[in-house]
Amino acid sequence: MRTLRVLTLLSAAVLLCSAAPGLAPLTCSEGNGPAAADKAVHHINEYHDHGYKFRLHEVQGNSVEQVDGGCNVKLQLDLRETKCHTTNPKPFEDCELREETERAVKANCTVLMTIKDGDATITKYECDTRQVNTNSEMVRICPDCPVLLPLNDSEGLKSVHEATTEFNKNTSNQHYYILKEVGRISSGYIMTSGMNYYAEFALVETRCPVGSRIVIEACTPLCPDRARHAFCKSSYSSENGLLSNDCDFYPAEVSPTAVLQ
Q1: For residues 90 and 52, is the Cβ–Cβ distance under 8 A?
Q2: What strands, in cross-sheet order, belong to the sheet with 70-85?
Q3: What range(s) does the Cystatin domain occupy (predicted)?
Q4: For the segment 171-209, what is each residue's pLDDT rounded down to a tens digit?
């Protein structure tokens, strides 16, 4: 049986009250690694505007070069992907990590930072992401676990579009929502229902009122300070169509400086 369930709107006040504490001051000492890594991960998440937030797993390298008035720092960081989409206002420190069986993703990041007169600035960072375990390793660890698919997989996208359509049909929202991005698509075969597709995707609130006679895909999002987001997890069967679609609602974006005050 097909079911559609939309979870309760998250309270902006509760989320903002759980904002991360202030960062520790940075120095040019050799023991600055943890504080420097903390600042780097905050910076990466602040400017990471798609996909999921990351948490620090390990500092793999930390070199400090003394220069006039300060130092240059180079960090090698091993990060782990969380279950919090970037539209989720929850601090990344509070976000749950994925289990190995969920096809966990890691990011190897190189971060360059300058520290001068007690002021630290990220000058450059590069991250390379991949699964923690390769597909062949996952076959040994969990042979029956769903397999990650490319985000442009045609059947996977079909399941997302059907879930989005159903979302807009069964809603008490004032405005229609459109697809912002697909975060994950995985698939697995079930004897009774054929190939099943599991998707995670973000929707954004548009200017179009619910009930208006308009092609929803032509609607444009509200401004960031007004547009709410919905983050959904759907399951879809090749034989039975959409099976479920569970969505969390997030308030309009708040600037990082406002959140940390």
Answers
A1: no
A2: 52-67, 70-85, 105-116, 119-131
A3: 16-128, 141-248
A4: 899 999 999 999 999 999 998 889 999 999 999 999 999
CA angle centred on 98, ends 243 and 35, rounded to 5° = 145
> What predicted TM-score, i.e. pTM, was given to this entire model?
0.85
Structural contact between residues 194 and 177, judged by C-beta atoms closer than 8 angstroms:
no
Is the separation of the CB atoms in 160 and 183 below 8 Å? Answer: no
Domain ranges of the chain: 20-139, 146-256
Query: CA-CA distance, 188 to 144, in Å (whole number)?
Result: 8
Pairing of β 229-237 and β 194-209: antiparallel
**Domains 20-139 and 146-256 belong to one CATH topology:** yes
DSSP string, 136-165: HHHHHH-TTSPEE--TT-HHHHHHHHHHHH
H or E element that contains 54: strand 52-67
CATH 3.10.450.10 fits 20-139, yes or no: yes
Which residues in the chain come in under a pLDDT of 50? 1-20, 257-261
Tell me the C-alpha distance between 240 and 242, whole Å: 7
> How many other C-beta atoms can be found within 10 angstroms of the C-beta atom of residue 68?
6
* Region 146-256: CATH code: 3.10.450.10
- Residue 229: name the closest of 208, 204, 207 by CA: 204
Quickly list DSSP for 11-44: PHHHHHHTPPPPPPP--SSGGGHHHHHHHHHHHH
55 sits in which H/E element = strand 52-67
Q: Map residue 217 onto helix, strand or coil.
A: helix
Using an 8 Å Cβ cutoff, are 48 and 54 in contact? yes
CA distances from 134 to 105, 139, 141 (A): 10, 9, 10
